[in-house]
Amino acid sequence: MAATVYLLSALTSLACTVLLWRAHRASGIRLLLWSCYFFGGLTLENIFLILDMLVFPQHDLKSTRILIALSSWTVLLLGLI
């Protein structure tokens, strides 16, 4: 059950990334680009979550996931400023 939730979270973040990228290419609004980068980072974080919890449970990738999430939030914050 947990694997399904992790996978759906990653796919949802990926879908948001793709949709925001397409919207940015059509309109050229920069906030859409920053949001695209944010959701791309969340996609990467969710992939690392799957790797951490399911593929390599003996290794701790929590610090990597937190660093990716912090970077993503920083990008979104800079885009909003």
Write structural notes for this entry.
By secondary structure, this protein is mainly alpha-helical. The protein has one domain (2-80). Helices cover 88% and strands 0% of the residues. The protein has three helices and no strands. The protein has helices at 2-27, 30-55, 62-80. The relative contact order is 0.17.
Structural class label: mainly alpha
Largest sheet: none
Q: How confident is the prediction overall: mean pLDDT?
A: 94
How many H/I helical runs? 3
Low-confidence stretches: none
Share of residues in helices: over 70%
Number of domains: 1
H-E string: HHH
Span between N and C termini? 39 Å
Shape: flat
Number of strands: 0
Give me the Rg, rounded.
14 Å
Strand content: under 5%
Task: Put the structure in a nutshell.
The chain has helices at 2-27, 30-55, 62-80. It has 81 residues and is mainly α.
Provide key terms for this protein.
about 80 residues; mainly alpha; 3 helices; about 90% helix
What layout of secondary structure does this protein have?
Layout: H1 2-27, H2 30-55, H3 62-80
